[in-house]
Amino acid sequence: MLFMVIENFKDGDARAIGERFKRGGRMLPAGLTYHASWMDSTGVRCFQVMETADPELLQTWVSRWNDLIDFEIVSVETSAEFWAQTRPG
User: Fold this and answer.
1) Rounded CA gap, 11 and 77, in Å?
2) Residue partners of 73: CB distance under 8 A and separation at least 6
3) Looking at domain 2-85, what is its CATH homologous superfamily?
4) Reduced to 3 states, what is the DSSP secondary structure of residue 6?
5) Cβ neighbours of 61 (radius 10 Å)
6) DSSP output for 19-56
7) 27-69 tens-digit pLDDT
8) Is the pTM of this model over 0.85?
9) CA dist., res. 9 & res. 26, Å (int)
10) Which residues pair with 8 in a beta bridge?
11) 10 Å Cβ neighbour count for 52?
12) Which helix (H) or strand (E) element contains residue 1?
């Protein structure tokens, strides 16, 4: 399953997040795959696409960062997958 992860940096503090990332990387548990990420132009939000068969792994990962980041996690699918399953009415 694919997930869009929206990270809102607490207090807009990208510096603290960058420092932790430099020390420990993404700190993903085994079975959670990072695909890509984008930053907003103000540097206070990050958008990531993650993949896992076990959504509980997202909570494990979030627990490693939630002192610095507020998370919104949305289950998504590609447009091609969505339209392949949608039949015209």
Assistant:
1) 31
2) 3, 4, 5, 6, 58, 62
3) Dimeric alpha+beta barrel (3.30.70.1060)
4) strand
5) 21
6) HHHHHHTT-PPTT-EEEEEEE-TTSSEEEEEEE-S-TH
7) 999 999 999 999 999 999 999 999 999 999 999 999 999 999 9
8) yes
9) 15
10) 45, 70
11) 17
12) none
Q: Which residues contact 82 (CB under 8 A, 6 or more apart)?
A: none
Q: What are 26's two structure tokens?
A: 């993404």
Length of the chain: 89
Q: Which amino acid would we find at residue 27?
A: M
Q: What six digits make up the tokens of 10? A: 């607490």
Measured over the CA atoms of residue 43, residue 44, residue 49 and residue 52, the dihedral's sign is positive
The pair of structure tokens assigned to 45 is: 């939000």
Tokens in use for 59? Answer: 């909570």
